[in-house]
Amino acid sequence: MDPSQSELESIRRILADLAARIDRIERKLGREQELLAAAPPSRPQSQPAVPVRPRAESAALLPPDPLAPPPPPAVGTPPSRPDLESRIGSHWLNRIGIAAVLVGISYFLKLAFENNWIGAAGRVAIGLIAGIAIVLWSERFRLKGYQAFSYSLKAVGIGSLYLSLWAASHLYSLIPNGVAFVMMLMVTASAAAMSLAQDAEILAAFALIGGISTPLLLSTGVNRQVALFSYVAVLDLATLVLVTVKPWGRLLVMSYLGTLLLYIGWYAEFYDRPQLGLTLAFATLFFAIFAIAPLVTLHPGGEVPVLASIPAILAILNAGVYFLQVYSMVREVNQAYMAWFALLLAAVYILLSRQIHARNLRPRASQVLYFLHLALAIGFITVAIPIRLNAHWITVGWFVEAGVLLWVANRLQSDFLNVFALGAVALGVVRLLAFDNFHTTQLIFNLRMATYAVAIVVLGAVAGFARKRQDESARTVAAVALVALNLLALIALSREVHDYYDRQIAAIRPTLFERDVRTPYVELNDTERDFTYSALWMAYGALLMVIGFVRRSAFVRWQALILIAATIAKVFVYDVSQLDRVHRIVSFIILGVLLLAISFVYQRDWLQLSAKTRPRTEGTVPGA
Q: For residue 163, how many other CB atoms are within 10 A of its CB?
């Protein structure tokens, strides 16, 4: 027999055997069901009662059916919130009652003090004992779940301790300032320890406020710069360490504002020129602490419940305030040093941005802080240029900065740097047109034309980099850059024409008293200048038209047509009434020949610019 036939017969026998077994099982099950249905119900007495589970509990024990439809959403009542009456009775009346008791006690103490029922030492002792008692009493409310009320009591108790120590030192002179300072430090440390033990940011805020208030409470009006700023630096470092343990970023902002308050208060009262070095060293120390602080708030790993804006706010405040602090002190020595200082700050923020980029931090917050540090670096470079340079060199510096930023942004594919590059270009253009004054003695080859040439090159780079991209915003930037480029070129050439004829007019005035006298030569020069303007604009329009034809760019040709239209309006409206007959004839002939030539090129379509041959090039920027 064929082996394949033998295997097939074996399979058939196995299938037949399985079918017979299934048939026997089904018949047996059917008989058992019939017997169960025919038997009468019985109630066994000897069997222990089996607890019957509720349907919901039984259903919960069964495995879920993956094919069953999802259960309908449970319709239940939301957790009940206490009504207004309950809130007033349980919260507000309680707080008002405590406030009333405290006010009553304060009035009693005031009466006792005025009548000398209690001496100075007794008053301080009452304040200290009351403060400690209130803090301990507040713990009972915290353990019962009334945390907000407990923290309010702790604030009253801690405040009572600080005020009692201040009174003992300044008001009654019972203890020296040093002893009061140490005891206030103990109160601050105790509040900080409670905040860690109870995981309560508000208690840490109380401790920080008390620590900042300590120098103010114990001030004697004597200049103790080293002691004050050393204490503030230690307090800031302690806050920084606390924030590394707990995600309490708001404490850094409080610490910074307190440091700034103490610094400004000391500076306004005690600073003078001989203290420059030491004051600058402490200001740099504070800057370094709070420059590192934003990195501390960005804990690696999961999300940390801190306000996302805290690192950015702290970085901006720290950078701006530190620069102003140093500027206010160093400008009296040598303002030029501030340019190098601004560049040094730019290098610091570039280094910080690299550190943020290298660490495994929270993506969104670290990215915001990374770009913010880069922005601060670019801002300090931009500020350094006008501090170090003068006049038109400021404009050139901003254009050079824009060119460098464009090159770096193109290498890194960074839209962020592109925005700052465009900002530097805008600053340079505004200053070039509105603020820079040039005194030129040579035509074309002078400093003004060189500055305009730098601007034109940078605008050309903007258009070139933007043209390589495919998005609509980049095309818009390229178009605006090309328009600005042509406008700057026209303005530069027109100013050359204006200054040339001004020099010619100034050369023929023999004396100072005749400067306002209009001689025939002066009027002739004005006429020639107007004619030269028209000729220049027509020539530039013709050049743009040629470039538009060669590059097959409708955008450039439209610029040429607009410039030529403006020239036509000038010739027909202004030149007709101002120019003499010869210049008028020449203007019209040149304009007519130019228009006929352009019209002829359009009609013959020598470069195949019709929509049928090149449907996609007519609406693009040059080279697109």
A: 17
